[in-house]
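Q: Hi! First time asking for a complex rather than a single chain. Here are the components, and I think there are two in total. Is that enough to go on?
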Amino acid sequence: MKSECEKWNDQLLEAALTGSTAKDLEEHLKSCVKCSAELDEVRARQARLEELLPFVARGAEPAADFKARVLAAAEVASKGKRAQRWRLWTLAGATAAIVVLVIGAAMYRRTTQTISTISVTEVAAVQKLVEWRAPSDSLLVTPGQEILKGTPKLGQSYLKVPVKTEE
Amino acid sequence: MTGTCVSVLISKAEAPESEARFSECIAENQRRVFQIAYSVLGNSADAEDVAQEAFLRAYQKFASLREAEKFRWWINRIVFRLALNRRRGHGRRLVRDSAWQMTETRAMVDGAKYAEQQVLLDRLRREIERLPEKLRSVLQLSLVEEMEAADVGAVLGVPAGTVRSRMHTARKLLLEVMK
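A: Yes, that's all I need. Here is the structure of the assembled complex.
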């Protein structure tokens, strides 16, 4: 008898949860006192459960000053964030200023160095230029050069050619 | 979400207004947010802590919120995740409110009946803890005020039909074990 009624357990639970009884269960309940009593018991349990379940989530309330505390915490967090952002920007600004200063100083130094270097170099170059002699001059100095200088060019007379005399 | 919060959110033009809007949103959502945390954690102190943390996280991204209607689902998700993380972190050390702690929140009509109810409630909470994760999450969220199947589904990422089906299974299991 016991095992025979056990098969109705699931349907009894469904009946208690949904409030409707299946036809075959209804037929069985007419002839089974045990299952009828069980259904009553399950329904009572279901009622108790429905009464208790809301308290799982609604058993307590947030404190009256909850909103104020959240807003205060948000303000503190916001200020902290602003201060952190400000610190970050200050640090970034200082770093940028230092970089600009370093680059500026380096460029200034290089410029002054270049100016002084150029002036010295230029002076040296000018001096060298003054002393410069075309290499062809030395190449042209040949034993017959003096004779060629004393030779009149085409259409000139020997008489007009100045004679160089060594003193 | 009521019209006030929506209208206030829509008119988010200047930065100083953001705090006023946020304040409105706390007022409208705090009860539900607290209950979500409480249903998972079972004690007021931890629930308040987690609810506050959820609002602070929401506040950090509040200015970027474009659709006002999403705030409700957004904050529900945040607080549920935070509460789950807190429970996992605390494990067995998590203390639930006992009967005397809850006395202040409700009028005590009948002392004996109330005590019996508290014993049953403690037992019910233990049985809920034993439920499979999927069923437990649905049950805990569904028990919160104003949480429809669609709201629960939005938090858990499942359709409303699935929520109803899991809720039915969870109730059936509880009915079987709460003899």
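A: Chain B has a mean pLDDT of 82. Let me know if you'd like any chain examined more closely.
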